[in-house]
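Lab notebook, design round three. We kept the backbone fixed and only want residue identities now. Task for the bench partner: fill in a sequence for the structure below.
Input structure tokens:
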């Protein structure tokens, strides 16, 4: 996600901004498209940053053993395990943020692409109709991604709240 897909999609989003700027007259809502693609670009780049920060906190006990001598590992096992638990919690937090920004980028990208596909008011005939179909598919993908991202998080929060209230999950 943050090593391959997000940088690729960020580049695509930035490139598409350039295309929109040069062809505004052929687009129905160029301002909205530019905002959507800018949000997508920023979100994908932040996903890369969050993924980069997450990676520095993920390591195995074997990694720790290779970094320290056997004597030091034995002498400081409790401290090293405690530090690894803290780092793992940091990794989990950074990956949650990376996932959130990746999903935000996908939604914004689909909305930008969908809006770019909408025909202009004077685009009549089969081309205009097909552009509406294509726009509907892209906007539907954006709404699907939004639901895909938000609903599981909402369910987890609800389940956690029930547990904290002493109810069955």
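Proposed sequence:
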């Amino acid at each position: 996600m943050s090593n391959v897909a997000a940088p690729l999609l960020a580049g695509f989003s930035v490139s598409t901004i350039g295309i929109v700027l040069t062809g505004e007259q052929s687009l129905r809502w160029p301002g909205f498209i530019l905002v959507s693609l800018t949000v997508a670009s920023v979100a994908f780049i932040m996903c890369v940053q969050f993924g980069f920060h997450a990676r520095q906190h993920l390591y195995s006990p074997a990694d720790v053993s290779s970094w320290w001598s056997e004597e030091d590992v034995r002498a400081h096992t409790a401290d090293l395990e405690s530090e690894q638990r803290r780092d793992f919690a940091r990794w989990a937090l950074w990956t949650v943020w990376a996932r959130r920004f990746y999903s935000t980028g996908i939604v914004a990208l689909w909305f930008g692409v969908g809006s770019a596909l909408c025909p202009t008011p004077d685009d009549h005939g089969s081309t205009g109709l097909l552009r509406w179909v294509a726009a509907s598919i892209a906007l539907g993908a954006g709404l699907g991604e939004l639901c895909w991202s938000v609903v599981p998080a909402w369910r987890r929060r609800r389940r956690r709240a029930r547990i904290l209230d002493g109810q069955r999950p």
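Keep this in mind before ordering anything: The chain has a mean pLDDT of 87.
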